[in-house]
Every structure is written in structure tokens, then in C-alpha cells.
């Protein structure tokens, strides 16, 4: 009986699925070009992952290469340079993730509290603008601001008698991660706050009115209305950003890094460029890319399960 019931239930679901497809056939046909685009540009290139298991040499077909098994992966984890850039990538990603969340949420809450619409629009516009600048321009600004001779930071520190002589921020490794974190905050905080502002505006005004009747001040409203209203959005974005924890960036580290601080400035992407592509070791570069992808997928799945166990919003 159970088997027959399950078969009938499966047939009903199948028939309902076919009916839904027929009802929405226009949307289905419209989605075909996008599905083909994703397949051609996102999934078809995955055949190149075979290079990670080969001693790939340009000029031969992909299936005509000499196979090497897991040799490239063993080489990665035996390489002290790769382990060092993995540490750098994780540290800079965690700094960007933590500071990015705190500043974006804080800015969204502050903007929500601004009553003057002109003032609010002005602050929003000013905070969004850096997002549209390329990293080349941003890094140029950072170099000028932190310059030992003419940089405004050194000038202020000297005038306030905090330091006795100018600091060369790009010659000492201890400053680099902080510079990268501050650069990402300045460039992306305004843009990242947009989704939190949208989430805040979706909160029912009746909750604020009820809180005002109960004598709640602004801080109480932020604590008991705004933050709980933001919680689902925060969890969804956190899960998605955890999946990018090995994508600390490339441009800013590449442009601001130099030989004196390369032990802390190089990321996995720079490692792939320097020791893989530039040295024609495409197998090693592919192995590093696969490692990043597998870890990212694993982190998203684990974060999603943790959110599910905690009873919070999740991706799937």
C-alpha cells in the first residue's frame, strides 16, 4: 500500500509540474538564452579542471596530456609559499568580512535615523561614489594619502606630535592588512549598506508607533525593532560572504604590494598568476583554483546547515 501511495503521489507531482510548465511556457522560453549563457560560460569551461590532474603542456589536446593524478595538489600543500598566501588570504578576508558587515549595518542604521531627506540623500550619494571608482584609482589615492613626504596622514600625525618622523606604510608588513581593510571599507561600505536600508524600510511603521506609545527612545527602537528586522538579511548575506572567504581580492593587493611586504600581501590569486600562469604551470594554477572552489562550496553548505540548526534564515 505504501509503495502504491508513493507512486500515486509522485505521479500527481509530475502532472502538476507539467501543468505549471505549460502555464508558464512563455517565461520558460525567455529563460532559455540565459540558461545557455550560464552553461557555455560557467559550466562548459569546467572541463579545463582536467589540467589539475595532468602535466599540462600547451600545444597538445586536453585528452592527449600526461596524467599526474593528485601530484599538483600535493605540491600545493607542500609549498610553504602557498601555505603563507593561504594564511594571508584568510586573514584579509576575515578582516574585510567583519569590518564590512559592521560598517555597512552601522551606516544603514544611521542613515535611517536621519530625518532630513536632503541630508540623507547627500550622505548616501557621497558614500556610494567610491564603489564606482576602479581599484587603480583608489590605490593611487591611498598611495598619495599615505605618502611619507606629502601624505595627509603623516602630516596630521606629525602636527599632533604622535610620531617624530614620517612612516613609510608600504615598507612595513604590520600595516598592510589594516590598509587593505580600510580601503575596502572606504570603497564598499556605502554600496553594501543599500540592501540593509531596503530591509529597514520594509519594517512595518506600526511597530515604531507601538514602541513610541510604550515610551521607547531611538536606541530602544534600534535594538528591539531594527536589529531583529535586519537579522534575516544579515544571515543570508553572511552565508553568501562566507563562501567568498578565499576571495580576499587581487587588485588592491597586487597594486599596493611590493617586494618588502610580499610575505603578507600575496593572496591565492596572486600566487596563481605568479607561480602558475606566468611560469606556464597551468596545472598548478588549475589545482589552486579547484581548491578555492571546493572550499567555498563546503563553507556555504556548512554555514547554511549552521543557520538551519539555529533556526535562522538560510539559502537552501
If you had to describe this structure to a student in words, what would you say it looks like?
The radius of gyration is 26 Å and the shape is flat. The model has no long low-confidence stretch (mean pLDDT about 90). The longest helix is centred in the first third of the chain and has 34 residues. Helices cover about 70% and strands about 0% of the residues. Strands 1-2 form a two-stranded antiparallel sheet. It has 14 helices and two strands; from the N terminus they run ααββαααααααααααα. The protein is mainly alpha-helical and about 325 residues long.
Percent strand equals under 5%
The biggest sheet amounts to: 2 strands, antiparallel
Q: What is the arithmetic mean of pLDDT?
A: 90
Order of helices and strands: HHEEHHHHHHHHHHHH
Strand numbers in spatial order across the main sheet: 1-2
Helix content: over 70%
Distance between the terminal alpha carbons, to the nearest Å?
32 Å
Q: How many distinct beta strands?
A: 2
Radius of gyration: 26 Å
Number of helices: 14
Contiguous uncertain segments of 5+ residues: none
Q: Which structural class matches the secondary elements?
A: mainly alpha
- Name the overall outline: flat
Amino acid at each position: 500500500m505504501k509503495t502504491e501511495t508513493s507512486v500515486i503521489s509522485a505521479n500527481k507531482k509530475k502532472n502538476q509540474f507539467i501543468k505549471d510548465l505549460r502555464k508558464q511556457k512563455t517565461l520558460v522560453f525567455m529563460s532559455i538564452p540565459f540558461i545557455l549563457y550560464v552553461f557555455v560560460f560557467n559550466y562548459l569551461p569546467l572541463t579545463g579542471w582536467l589540467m589539475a590532474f595532468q602535466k599540462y603542456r600547451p600545444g597538445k589536446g586536453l585528452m592527449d596530456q600526461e596524467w599526474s593524478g593528485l601530484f599538483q595538489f600535493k605540491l600545493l600543500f607542500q609549498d610553504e609559499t602557498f601555505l603563507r598566501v593561504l594564511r594571508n588570504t584568510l586573514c584579509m578576508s576575515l578582516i574585510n568580512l567583519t569590518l564590512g558587515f559592521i560598517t555597512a549595518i552601522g551606516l544603514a542604521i544611521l542613515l535611517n535615523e536621519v530625518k532630513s531627506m536632503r541630508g540623507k540623500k547627500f550622505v548616501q550619494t557621497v558614500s556610494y561614489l567610491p564603489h564606482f571608482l576602479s581599484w587603480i584609482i583608489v590605490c593611487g589615492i591611498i598611495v598619495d594619502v599615505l605618502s611619507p613626504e606629502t601624505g595627509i596622514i603623516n602630516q596630521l600625525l606629525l602636527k599632533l606630535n604622535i610620531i617624530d618622523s614620517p612612516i613609510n606604510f608600504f615598507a612595513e608588513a604590520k600595516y598592510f592588512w589594516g590598509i587593505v581593510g580600510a580601503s575596502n571599507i572606504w570603497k564598499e561600505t556605502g554600496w553594501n549598506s543599500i540592501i540593509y536600508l531596503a530591509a529597514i524600510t520594509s519594517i512595518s511603521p506600526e511597530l515604531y508607533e507601538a514602541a513610541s506609545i510604550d515610551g521607547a527612545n531611538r536606541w530602544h527602537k534600534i535594538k528591539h525593532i531594527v536589529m531583529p528586522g535586519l537579522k534575516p538579511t544579515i544571515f543570508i548575506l553572511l552565508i553568501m560572504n562566507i563562501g567568498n572567504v578565499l576571495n580576499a581580492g587581487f587588485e588592491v593587493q597586487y597594486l599596493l604590494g611590493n617586494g618588502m611586504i610580499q610575505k603578507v600581501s600575496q593572496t591565492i590569486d596572486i600566487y596563481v598568476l605568479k607561480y602558475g600562469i606566468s611560469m606556464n604551470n597551468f596545472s598548478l594554477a588549475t589545482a589552486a583554483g579547484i581548491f578555492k572552489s571546493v572550499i567555498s562550496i563546503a563553507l556555504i553548505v556548512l554555514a547554511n546547515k549552521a543557520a538551519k540548526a539555529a533556526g535562522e534564515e538560510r539559502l537552501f
